[in-house]
Amino acid sequence: MTKRITAKEAKNAAFETLQRLFAIHPDAHCELEHKSPFELLVATVLSAQTTDVAVNKATPALFAKYPTAEALAKATPLEVEPLISTIGMYRQKSKNIVKLADLLIKRHKGQVPKSLDKLVELPGVGRKTANVVLGVAFGAPEGVVVDTHVMRISQRLGWTKEAEATTIELALCKLLPREVWDRTSHTLIFHGRRICGAVKPQCDRCGVSDVCPSAGRAVEVGRKPGRTR
Ligand code: SF4
Predict the structure, then answer these.
(1) How far away, in angstroms, is 111 Cα from ligand 1 center?
(2) pTM recorded for the entire structure
(3) Chain mean pLDDT for the chain
(4) 37-138 falls under which CATH superfamily?
(5) What is the pLDDT of residues 2-51, one digit of tens each?
């Protein structure tokens, strides 16, 4: 019987394992549809506690009516609500995106700022949302985006023993070079959706099972209820 890799060995091999995951999921990308940094920022705010699929169904009509920060800042939350009413917490999100557009005009000349500090001052924008925008729109993330998939899989792969999103992010930033931070999130999310699911991980068809300390017993490791984005 082949000896199982230890968590320490798995952590040391993390970058190599990641390269293999890149090869397994070469198409990994942000699935929120957008045509500009502004659209990506709004779509990411809307994606809190819901799926990208649900957001992608609502945003074409939203962006057709309000394609820029200028246009959205002139709307009222009540006017926006019907366009996003299929998304969870749409009333609060309507308020957030109208206020966000207003602040983009007042503070940033209608443009999406390129710094995490400035982004997190906007309503509905936390560190994770800010890093999605910085990574996807500008190729300059200031951290690793840790959602429920990234959390679970980095734990299962033995890359971290941390249990909270913020401490997992710090651990991943320390472990992996900055150039791959953005791609790491998208790749682990794709791996989580396709192979390493929370409830039914398919270790028998996983391309990195030989370097995963949780292979064959994954449901016991890193299982997190709910979504963090
Ligand atoms: S071997 Fe199993 S637990 Fe490990 S990454 Fe693959 S699917 Fe997930």
Answers:
(1) 41
(2) 0.90
(3) 94
(4) Hypothetical protein; domain 2 (1.10.340.30)
(5) 678 888 888 889 999 999 999 999 999 999 999 999 999 999 999 999 99
For the chain, which residues make up each domain, given as ranges? 7-29+144-220, 37-138
What is the whole-number distance in angstroms between the Cα of residue 80 and the centre of ligand 1? 42
Q: Which class in CATH covers the domain with range 7-29+144-220?
A: mainly alpha
Distance CA 163, CA 171 (A): 11
Q: Which residues are catalytic?
A: 128, 147
Q: Give DSSP secondary structure letters for 73-106.
A: HTS-HHHHGGGSTTSTTHHHHHHHHHHHHHHHHH
Ranges of beta strands (E only) in the chain are none
Atom number in ligand 1 closest to CA 201: 7
Q: What is the DSSP letter of 165?
A: H
Q: Would the CB of 203 count as within 6 Å of ligand 1?
A: yes
| Residue 215 in contact with ligand 1 by CB distance below 6 A | yes
Residues 6+ apart with CB under 8 A from 201: 156, 195, 218, 219
| Ligand 1 close to Cβ of residue 30 (< 6 A) | no
Q: How far apart are CA 164 and CA 152, in angstroms?
A: 10
> Which two tokens mark 2?
């082949």
Please report, for residues 12, 31, 118, 173, 185, the alpha-carbon distance to residue 159 in angstroms, rounded to integers and kept in the order given: 8, 25, 30, 11, 14
Give the CA distances from residue 229 to residues 132, 161, 162, 190, in Å, rounded to whole numbers and listed in that order: 11, 21, 18, 15
